[in-house]
Structures are given as C-alpha cells and as structure tokens.
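Each record in this resource describes a single protein on a pair of labelled lines. The shape at a given residue is found from the number at the same position. The record below illustrates this layout:

***
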Amino acid sequence: MVTYNPKDWLKLIIQFHKTDTARTLLWPMLLIGAITAAIEVIEKIYIKEPIEGNVTIFHQISGFIISLVLVFRINTAYDRWWEGRKLWGGLLNSCRNLSIKMHALMPKNSIEERKEIAAMISNYAYVLKEHLRNNSPEKLVAESSYINKAEYTKSNHKPNYIAKQLTEYIINISQKNPKTQYDSLLISSNLNDLTDICGACERIKNTPIPYSYNMFIKRIVFVYIITMPIAFGFSVGYWSIPVVMVMFYAFASLELISEEIEDPFGYDENDLPTDEIAEKIKLNVHEILLD
C-alpha cells in the first residue's frame, strides 16, 4: 500500500508514481490523440458544413450520464476496499482479544502452551492473507508442534485447518484443568470471529462486479471518447486533440482505479497492507502471551 502525505499538494500533482494511471494509459492516450487528429483532418478537408448544435448538446448530456455511472463504479469498488480494511482491522482486534483472554486464563509458567497458541494465531493471519492471494504457503511464520505438516499441506483450505487446530488445542487445555474446563466458552466468540472474517473476505474476493456491467462501462466510455472529435471538432478545431486525450485519461483512470481496488487483497500498490497487518498480529500476540 502506498504511504503518502495527503497535505502535500505540489508533490502529489507533479510526482508520477509507478502506480499512476498515466503510465498505463500513455500509449492508449497517444493513439486516441492520433485518431482525433485524423478525424479533424478529414473534417477540415471533406466536410464543409458544420455539425448541428443539438449533436453537441446530446454528447454533453451523455457525458454527464457516463460520469454518474463511473462514480457509482468507483464508489462500489471503494466500498469493497473499505470493507476489506474493516475486516482485517477486526482480525487484528480478535487476535489481540483472544491472546489477552488466554494470557489471563493460563498459568504464568505454561510457556510451551503459550508458544503454541501464539504460533497458531500468527500462522492463521499469515495463511489467510496468502489464501486470499490464491497462494498455498508450505512454510509457516512460526513453528508449531500441534500443526501436522502433512495434514496442513494436504488441506484444501489452510486457514480452516489452522483455526480447527487452534480451537481443538484451546479446548484441550481447558479440559485438562477441572476448575477451568468451561473457560473455552469465554473465548468462543473470538475463535468464531476468525472464520467469520475469512468467509467475509472470501465473499469480497470471489464476487466480482457483474461481467455485463463491467463490459458496458468499457464500451460506453470507448464510444463516447471516439465520437467526441466528431461532436466538438468544428467548434474547437485541433484543440479537440488534447481535450479528447484528457477526457480519455479521466474516464479510463476511474475504471482502472476501480479494477485495482475492487479486489483489495492482492499485490497492487493500492491494495490493503495485509503483510503489515499480519506481521503486527504476530508481534502483538507474542508480546501479550510471552513477554
């Protein structure tokens, strides 16, 4: 995820980051400019009568409608990004609460049990972020003797396997002590949160924007941009070349940004900082249980 100072206007305006859509759209913008120039030349040479004003007005109205569609598109994508951020914030808090409760319930001298729980919680966050990236990591971030490597490798849903082992381990610890055999009920909600958050993240990842809606936006933007020189050529002349290029950059950038953030769990620069959150979970859990 890109970190920046939102108050530094000048730097944000003049700096071209590698995620800037201008880099991606440079060649399409030049192509659109060349097409616009060709249309303008044809109009100047072969079309003597200027196009009626109602065509230009119709193009302006259609541009307003397309703008509304694009606003809805990027708002929908941002909602998915923000929901993903809230879910990972909830995962961080659930792991902290689970660790705090286990710290209070377990004896101070139960070092091995504390290490096992800290390892499994840390591994869950790490495996979940890789699972959402369609990766299947063989190596975990913390050693745990309660995670069978053969079973873990064979499992199709690795976050579920670690959550299952963690729940089983905590229940076994509670049952070994008759005085605290029902302590697992105190942390059941935190254990349930792990799977609930995983399922919610999978829902975001596996439910893309409908195909027909996505294709409609791309086609209508293309048609609008490619007809803009025809509608405005006679009124602004060759100035339509930079105008069309700027409009294409604005409309296409909104679509590119939407595509990038609608799946917020990947490796794109504007995706969620799941690596940093998973590392923070590991550090917090170890600090609570072991320090």
